[in-house]
Amino acid sequence: MVKVELICVGNEILIGKTLNTNAHWLAKRVTSLGLKVNRITTVADDLEEISSAINEALSRNPRFIITTGGLGPTFDDKTLEGIAKALNLKLEVNDEALKMIEEKYAQYVKEGRMEKAELTPHRVKMATLPVGAKPLPNPVGTAPGVLINYENVTVIALPGVPSEMKAIFDESVVPVLRKEAGKVIFYEAGMEVLGIVESEIAPLIDKVMHDNPYVYIKSHPKGEEKTSRIELHFSTTSEDVETAKKRVGRAIIQISDMIKKKGGKIRPIKTFG
Amino acid sequence: MVKVELICVGNEILIGKTLNTNAHWLAKRVTSLGLKVNRITTVADDLEEISSAINEALSRNPRFIITTGGLGPTFDDKTLEGIAKALNLKLEVNDEALKMIEEKYAQYVKEGRMEKAELTPHRVKMATLPVGAKPLPNPVGTAPGVLINYENVTVIALPGVPSEMKAIFDESVVPVLRKEAGKVIFYEAGMEVLGIVESEIAPLIDKVMHDNPYVYIKSHPKGEEKTSRIELHFSTTSEDVETAKKRVGRAIIQISDMIKKKGGKIRPIKTFG
Q1: Run of H or E residues at B269
Q2: Interface touch A17/B75, C-beta < 8 Å
Q3: Which chain B residues are closer than 8 Å to A209 by Cβ?
Q4: Sign of dihedral through CA atoms A69, A75, A80, A85?
Q5: Using CB atoms, which residue from B24, B75, B113 is nearest to A205?
Q6: What is the model's pLDDT at position A184?
């Protein structure tokens, strides 16, 4: 599967003020498009931290690196500078990005929400991109997203504001990822197991995973082990849904029989798939 | 400040099924104890991924590495193996951990929720720790937490089930962190700015940060830039609350005046502090 790394930039995540819902949303979207998120890294609004996180990600050879946060007009929006540093690219004012931003401010003035639309240094900053970058239109905010093709990796920088991040992703990033993903789909199904503890299920999972090499089973104890409520998630990737369903179905039947023999109860649950 | 790295282990986070509330909770707790979370990394339930994440964290010289997830009895609980590999330590059955687990299962049998308490290989697995590790009692589940002092770093492994993670953290990890943190406290206050856009506030922040070197100001546009609602968070660290409050107060007064002159409105908001 095509490897993707997510890098989230923001002190507010590291001090535990902001719950990282951006990473969660992106991970789900990327997975359901048939690509694989290998790692999620959160770093501070700090040039060195951002550029080393990018460099470390590059060394793991993902096909895509997607960043969130740090694209705005303030001094601590340092993501593009960090990417430029890591890729050894210069920053320059990008004409296409500048035009996007000028049009936004002209529109704000027209709507009477601002008096002047002039390009202050802080506004020009949002159009200052690594050389060769492509700005991605921001349908709901000002700072454009950014796409950079660099050797075998595509680096995509998205804003940290969730509504802007999602809008740019859906409009400009989905087509790029879909093209690379090919036809692989991710399929998952789940069940809840009651009445036996996780350490009793563990050997059953081992056996079923062994007999069903394409199926991955993960157990999720819910609450405390002593309540004996465990979710099992069965997942596989395949080029067609029918094959995927068949594989997962076979594993579910096998483990269900084994769980019942141990005195456990099962019931189906809705999962991700 | 004392540096901490968080490493979260779990495929369910990488496929976007589970929102990483553990990292959020830990980041907040660690910060309010006066330590600094430098990085949060999420990796798959994979031995190589876990051990390289630990190795990379070690190379950044944090005082603490706290992991979540991967301590249970199933085949894909690989965190301790990954830590052992990274630290070049052998794994061995830890007598103290084994005793904790035996007592848990004896209790489950007593409560009539299980028939037999014997130590199956999957249960012994939870007591198989890196040599020299200290098990941390799990007040609400079975798998103990683990603490390892290795050269200048302390590695602490916590379960992924939030109730267990929190209980072990509060009971056994807080005293360790508090001792290292010294007296440093983190203080924060916030305000909401209405009626001017982020790119207009950016130069004001630059000025106030310059005049108040110990205060960090971060702007958070809420929703879309055009709605002109921006939160400003002012933070500092200090050995006493009074100094911290005075510093942040001075910065707030200065920027409030500047915002009002620009035609903006402000109102105080509750933040983290």
Answers
A1: strand B265-269
A2: no
A3: 75
A4: negative
A5: B75
A6: 79
pLDDT value of position A136: 98
Nearest to A28 among B16, B23, B74 (CB): B16
Which element (helix H / strand E) includes A95? helix A95-110
Contact A42 B21 (CB under 8 A): no
pLDDT tens digits, one per residue of B211-232? 887 888 888 888 654 567 899 9
Contact A52, B52 (CB under 8 A): no
CB-nearest to B203 from A122, A197, A222 is A122
Nearest to B39 among A24, A43, A197 (CB): A43
Q: Taking 60 as the threshold, does the pLDDT of residue A41 lie above it?
A: yes
Mutate to test the interface with B, among A35, A124, A225 (most CBs of B within 10 A): A225
Instruction: Check residue B113 and report its DSSP letter.
Output: S
pLDDT band at A237 (very low <50, low <70, confident <90, very high): confident
Sign of the Cα pseudo-torsion (B244, B250, B255, B260, in order): positive
Q: What tokens does A177 get? A: 């990822």
Nearest to B87 by CA among B118, B128, B55, B126: B55
User: Which of the listed CATH numbers 3.40.50.150, 1.10.10.10, 3.30.70.580, 3.40.980.10 matches domain A3-181?
Assistant: 3.40.980.10
- The answer to whether the Cβ–Cβ distance between B38 and A44 falls below 8 Å is yes
Helix, strand, coil shares of chain B as percentages rounded to 5? 45, 25, 30
CA distance B134 to A253: 41
| Regions in chain B scoring below 50 on pLDDT | 225, 273
The domain locations on chain B are 3-181, 185-269
**Cross-chain Cβ contact B126/A199 below 8 Å:** yes
Q: What is the mean pLDDT of residues A121-141?
A: 94
Q: How much is the ipTM here?
A: 0.84
A25 vs chain B: nearest CA distance in angstroms?
A: 6
pLDDT number for residue A227: 61
Q: Higher confidence at residue A79 or residue A212?
A: A79
Q: Search chain A and give the residue with CA nearest B104.
A: A226
Fold of A185-269: Alpha-Beta Plaits (3.30.70)
B40-63 per-position pLDDT tens digit? 999 999 999 999 999 999 999 999
Same-fold call for A3-181 versus A185-269: no
A116 to each of A75, A83, A167, B178, B194, how far by Cα in Å?
21, 31, 27, 51, 17
Q: Work out the average pLDDT over A13-42.
A: 93
Selected for mutation to probe chain B from A15, A138, A210 (highest B CB count within 10 Å) is A15
Q: Name the pTM for this structure.
A: 0.84
Closest residue of chain B to A18, computed from CA coordinates: B24
Q: Which residues of A touch B141 (CB under 8 A)?
A: 221, 224-226
Residue whose entry in the numeric block shows the structure tokens 């931290």: A49
The closest of B88, B89, B62 to B7, measured between CA atoms, is B62
